[in-house]
């Protein structure tokens, strides 16, 4: 029978892991006659009892495996590590907090069994339970990145998906350190079927995604999948050069033709600050791309494993 690997990134999820285990068991029993399962927990340097609970689950159930990082490397690194060590013919990515309904796995597997698709992904059609400001910023981000990038990223897309081995191998070939998986999933291509569901709240515990972390993540996505901000910086430079040239001509004409002396405009300081701000903004754009390039050239490992049970 085909093997299905379920990769579960975990960071301080001790409260929800027992609930997740019960939920995933039901799905494994439902699909059981048609496939074998392994569940690979990736402990992303948790500081609570997450690793101890995962180790207990592995002792109790031979289908459970785990990797534990030496520190917190972030969810993107955890997902990559899980995909790299998953052995399945089909590989699923799923959060442990039950905001990704495990029950959908049965429908996702049924779609891939037919051979029409290479991936079954999920997207939220509502953001019920989220702060309004966060929901508004998320919608704006998807609109912005789809305008800036040639890679389409579906609004409300989750990392929760089931993929064929061929697609997983293609993703693993992209070894960049600054990872934005939502863009990578789209960039590699392959036929994807989307399943829609309403937003579900966490079963237990606290979200690990603050507004600042989400902002940095979205900025990383824009830099990783679009070079239009660089073109925008160049365009701003050309625009202000042209504007300053026209103003110089206008001052010369006023002085020579009408004898109008050059006035000491009180607004000069404001203009200087405005143009200086634009310059710093454009330098900041260049700095973001340079910083990402600098990190990539170091070729540091995406993650470091401290403990693991992979047999």
Account of the protein in words:
- By secondary structure, the chain is of the alpha/beta class.
- The chain contains ten helices and eight strands.
- It has helices at 17-31, 50-60, 75-85, 104-113, 132-148, 165-172, 181-187, 211-225, 228-257, 268-298, and strands at residues 3-10, 36-43, 64-69, 90-93, 119-124, 157-164, 192-197, 305-309.
- The protein has an eight-stranded mixed beta sheet, with helices on both faces.
- Strand 2, helix 2 (50-60) and strand 3 form a beta-alpha-beta unit.
- Helix 5 (132-148) packs parallel to helix 8.
- The longest helix has 31 residues, at 268-298.
- The protein is elongated, with a radius of gyration of 25 Å.
Helical content band: 40-55%
What is the count of β-strands? 8
Distance between the termini: 19 Å
Strand content: 15-25%
**How would the global form be characterised?**
elongated
What Rg, in angstroms, do the CA atoms define?
25 Å
Strand order of the largest sheet: 7-5-6-4-1-2-3-8
* Overall pLDDT: 79
Point out poorly predicted stretches: none
User: What's the oligomerization state?
Assistant: single chain
Main sheet characteristics: 8 strands, mixed
Structural class: alpha/beta
Number of helices: 10
The ordered H/E elements are: EHEHEHEHEHEHHEHHHE
